[in-house]
Design goal:
Helices cover about 60% and strands about 0% of the residues. By secondary structure, it is mostly helical. The mean pLDDT is about 90.
Amino acid sequence: MESYFKTGVVTGVILVLLLLETWMPFYSHFKGSWKQRVLHDGRNMALAMMNATLGAVLIGAGFFYQQQWAEAYHVGILRQVDWGPTSETIIVLILFDGWMYAWHRINHVIPFLWRFHRMHHSDPAMDATTGIRFHPGEILLSAAARLIVLPLLGMELWQLLLYETLLLPVILFHHANITLPRKLDHVLNFFVVTPAMHRVHHSRERAETNSNYGSILPYWDLLAGSWRTREDLTSIQFGVDGWQETHWQTLKGLLLTPLRKINIQKK
């Protein structure tokens, strides 16, 4: 059920953002070519549907049994305290967002994990659909890690669903190819990761790629020293060097990404 709910949230938000990207784009990725845009967005959405199916069939079952085990043995930090449901929920949401930051950063550090995560970064035309462009292998690895983190925190499934409900619109928003007034982006960045902040993360330049890892809250990057700004956002080149060829941007090529050894990034 969680997977179907997430699919509904993604569908609704992405439709709004696609309209905004048509009306007020920040980059001219496709230079008026509707065919290129449809192919690009269609591939990314196809990956999202594959991952949604994977989540519904395999990951959902794993989370359910993990939850049953954690409750039966009273496992988890928050199961050892009684601070009230509201306080505990706020705390666990913040802690889990910290885990999301750490997991994202680890995916850039460990070569095996980067093999899967680089497919997300190899998109040469970042837009809202890039926010749902993940390799199924990365989804499984992330889920496996969560099966350890969730019981450790004592996070309930409904709290995870609440986090995902907050996360997905923010993820789609900060990947979106939309023009926001710089001042508005700056104000929003006090609360959430914004397009200006996340565009730097998708740069081909290694120093920029390895920065701005935050998912919802931007403060993890400030605390961990990975915050990076860039004045000229219009000149950013998206993607990963060595992955621009058309055949690596097909659905087959994207799924084969982890098997390719090349890992070139500008220093």
